[in-house]
Design a protein that fits this description.
single chain, about 200 residues, alpha+beta, five-stranded mixed beta sheet, two-stranded antiparallel sheet
């Protein structure tokens, strides 16, 4: 029996996101509570693998967690992350700093507010493009504020990082001849056609 418990725990740990800060909804009051979270070495390594970056040097957030419209939860704050990415041209390391303000509303699956999110019969939700994202549904009695923090950092990651001073044109052959005057071996393909 003891072995089975260990297996279940290991499975549960694998299902958890790399950066997690679970919050019991029942413990959240109407007055927002300020919480500071910071990723440890193991969490930063797991996030680097998830985001496909060289490394995550720092991830820290300060957030206010409070009730929203009786049974919802609002998580609002600021996150700072320092990453090392590979330059898309030279593969050299590129330092990136991401500082984002964020706000996320959570509503329980069974509430009236959830029907607004899922598009119930007559309910309609008008979203401000400059305002917070649409509310997220949660099941059970726990939300994961850490996962929310990590998601906002992921949205801020530059998908094409470049080392300062590096230009794509320096590494792309746009002419049919190379700098040495030799013909480009791929130039013959431009007039190539398939034969039937």
């Amino acid at each position: 029996m003891r072995e089975t418990g260990t297996t279940v725990k290991e499975h549960h740990d694998q299902a958890r996101p790399p950066f997690s800060y679970p919050v019991k909804v029942g413990n959240i009051s109407a007055n927002p509570v300020t919480v500071k979270v910071e990723a440890d070495v193991r969490e930063r390594a797991a996030l680097a693998a998830l985001w496909r970056v060289v490394s995550v040097e720092e991830l820290a957030a300060e957030m206010q967690i409070g009730r929203w419209k009786k049974d919802g939860v609002r998580v609002k704050g600021k996150v700072k992350a320092r990453l090392v990415q590979a330059c898309v041209v030279t593969l050299e390391p590129v330092d990136s700093v991401i500082e984002e303000e964020f706000e996320q509303i959570f509503v329980p699956e069974g509430s009236k507010l959830a029907r607004l999110v899922t598009g119930g019969d007559t309910a309609e939700m008008v979203l401000d493009p400059d305002g917070p994202d649409a509310p997220e549904l949660f099941v059970g009695d726990t939300i994961d504020a850490g996962e929310t923090v990590a998601e906002f950092v992921a949205l801020g990651i530059n998908p094409y990082p470049r080392k300062s001073g590096v230009d794509f044109s320096d590494h792309i052959e746009s002419d049919e001849t190379t700098d040495e005057g030799k013909p480009n071996p791929f130039a013959v393909l431009k007039d190539w056609k398939t034969k039937e």
